[in-house]
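Feature request disguised as a bug report, sorry. It would help if multi-protein outputs had a clear separator. Right now it looks like this:
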Amino acid sequence: MREPISACIITYNEEYKIGRCLRSVTWCDEIVILDSFSTDRTFEICRRYTDRIRQNVWLGYVGQRNLARDMAQHPWILFLDADEEVSPALRDEILAEFERGTGDCVGYEFPRLVYYLGRWIRHGEWHPDIKLRLFRKTDGHSEGEEPHDRIAVRGPVKRLKNPIWHYTYDDIRDQLATLNRFSGITAQQRFVQRRPFHWLDLLLRPPFRFLRSYFLRGGILDGAHGFIIAVLSAYGAFVKYAKIWEIEHQRFAESRTAPNEPPDRPVQEGRSR
């Protein structure tokens, strides 16, 4: 008999996507949900698929995933985001692999195929976007800098060929909102880590991000979609470093202002009384 797998999913207000995600992992031996007190129908929808649900205050992507991992009862963990789906081909590939036996392998990685503005994206920065998401519980955990967590394992990893499907953004407005949120998290993280702002980052990284996405990684082959992705990737890089500058600028201004003393005001020339 194959080793059992626990699918672990973290959620918050995902009522329009979570059903598709959960249907794609009904073949797993357990579905574990860690919800951050959703205010929509997410919790209700999850209850239709599993009773292994817990609500917890948001600990960040790393903390939340590790808590979901600890909740799992089986030796293998499959991490999935609420806006992702295990493709039927990947499901069959995983099951075939486990029927043969995993041997000394402690993790499996596979590509992620993004659906964006009505089409699948097969070039540029977003493809093949290899992710390690299936791993032996005793040999892996989540780590990394917010908001970009990753799975670290101790031991051999095998790459499968079939993808997770990722329904990344509803539209450009949703994408811009995510870029704004993630850039703020990253900027704050860098400030806490005392990683200083450099003007060269702000000047050079955004155009390089566009060139890499659109030309070096072949985003041009995705037509208008590839161009929009490359431009917005460059914009995201610009906003991130601009926010790092903003935080340092604000802290510097605050350090020059004495406690309980308002900032200096320009002296207005004129006749005194």
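(second protein starts here, but nothing in the output says so)
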Amino acid sequence: MHSVLRITLALLASASPAFWAAADSITLKNGDQLSGTLVELADEVVVFRTELAGKMMLPVSQVTSNVTAHDVQCVFKDGGRAVGRLVGADKGMQFLPAGGGAAVLVTPSMLASVAPVPGEAVSPGSPPPAPAHSLTVETGSRYVSGNDDYIALYTRLRLRSTRDNYHLLTDAQVEFAGDGELPTSGELVATWRLRPDAALSPALYFGLERDTIETLDLRMTLALGVYHMFFDNGRQSLEGTLGASVESEQWNLRRLRDLDVLPSSGLDAVDAEWYYRAADSHRDFVDLRLRANARHVLHLLNDVHFEEQLGLYPSLTDPDDWRAAYESRLLFPLTERLQLNLNLSVDYDNRPA
């Protein structure tokens, strides 16, 4: 049995170049403020998409104001139509016409529908809005306990891209421990979800992982599954993915001696030496696994977010072989584009190489 524990303290910064979609915001009656993209307002429901929680549907009665970064097309309940921006005001929000003119104080209850328009003001029937993209850069230090205990510096890049017909998440990170082979570990993950607004969305996962201290030269994973949002009430959400994967693993057992983790005395040392001599220096595996993931996001006060993810990966070819992973993140806003991240992750393998 083998487990790896990581405790991380990091700064996370988001970047939004000019050609990427700027963030809209929404304020709820309980004081919570969410940042993301306004999809639409219609039939007394606000559809809003955030980076952390994905798409959410909120009753207009629970919303005090919307702020849009770009022009939107508004239809008022009195029959009026106009294109402009919704901006914040001391007593809620104002509508600022795109062609100029005085801002008008409005409330969400005065709006029959709101829909984004790409770029400048356009007439109904225009092309769909531009895709929403985001890039976050996370860097900091972490304490790692496993085959060896050490403190490492790491950097993580996360790119999200969302259109009407797919959602793409790309995550890449490297870890530098300062001793031995650099980088100590690295991981690249890409996840595609097709038809993200459907009840069940096809999902494709591809991953590459390397960890020299855990003697893992390379793990390559290709998975297919289905994604489902169980609930999303604006304050918290729960989503899950279920599928199967093909994994290829390459392990280098020579590094066990380099790490000085084998017992040095007693019967345990004899057993370890026997195992080391009997085992091949390199071990390669190909396996078929079930992949079950659940992700929970909770929006706390003052834009503080808590998210956690649990993954179970039992082997479909060997019932006694299974892995599990848990990760939790607590995000504190420091500035508009800078957050403090406290992270805890545990990886467990009951039959490591």
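Even a blank line would do. Unrelated, but nice: Residues 16-21, 119-131 have pLDDT under 50 and may be disordered.
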